[in-house]
Amino acid sequence: MDKLARAFPVFRAAKIAQRWAGLIDVTPDAVPVIGLGPRAGRLAADLSAGTAPIVDPAAFRFSRFSTARGSCP
Questions:
Q1: Are 44 and 54 in contact (CB under 8 A)?
Q2: Rounded CA gap, 55 and 5, in Å?
Q3: pLDDT digits 0-9 by tens, 20-39
Q4: Rounded to an integer, what distance in angstroms lies between the CA atom of residue 73 and that of residue 60?
Q5: 65 near 28, Cβ under 8 Å?
Q6: Judging by beta carbons within 10 Å of its beta carbon (0-12, 13-18, 19+), is residue 62 exposed, middle or buried?
Q7: What Cα–Cα distance (Å) separates residue 4 from each residue in 16, 17, 27, 47, 60?
Q8: 18, 17, 16: which is closest to 5 by C-alpha?
Q9: Is the pTM for the entire model greater than 0.70?
């Protein structure tokens, strides 16, 4: 709070109303899992159609958990 108040004086009188914490699920290599959003749909469509994918899907391959290249940091 001190650093915040120094950088932004308007926060000098601010009080912390509540705090919370939680866990964020990640894979062992910290590469995100592809969700079910529109870009994932586009990637699936590109791969199914045999066209150049919107992103390189190599980083998301399942085998990354069993290969040296994809081992945990």
A1: no
A2: 42
A3: 887 666 788 877 777 778 88
A4: 16
A5: yes
A6: exposed
A7: 12, 16, 33, 47, 38
A8: 16
A9: no
- Residue 6 CA to residue 31 CA, distance in Å, equals 36
Give the number of other CB atoms < 10 A from CB of residue 26: 10
Which residues contact residue 48 at a Cβ distance below 8 angstroms, ignoring those fewer than 6 apart? none
Output the DSSP codes for 1-44. Answer: -HHHHHH-GGGTT--------------TT-PPPP-SSHHHHHHH
Give the residue from 23, 29, 38 showing the smallest Cα distance to 62: 29
**CA dist., res. 26 & res. 73, Å (int):** 13
